Amino acid sequence: MTATAKKTTTKKTATKSAAAEAEALETAPTHFQHAGITFEVPHPLDFPLAVLKTDDEFEACALIVGEEQWAAYEATKPSIRDFGVFAQKLSEAQGRDTDSGN
Prior knowledge:
The chain is mainly alpha-helical. It has 5 helices and 2 strands. It has a two-stranded antiparallel sheet with strand order 1-2. The chain is elongated and about 55 Å long.
């Protein structure tokens, strides 16, 4: 293999590696802190399908964070105001803004 061929191969490998890393970051879970708990939020395409079937914001939040994390949140005895803050942080962790209409 010539020096030019090696450089081309190395450059292609680096480009593929960078693309794979960028894709992994785009689909990786995100995290947010609330009430002393770190919540992990899956990529929206990895949410349970049941999220699409509900119009209930509480149920949607519970489905998104999962049973264990939702139980930990409920154990903090949150108020209605606190739930609003929690839901806002969850929305931000999904990469959505609050004015998106979703």
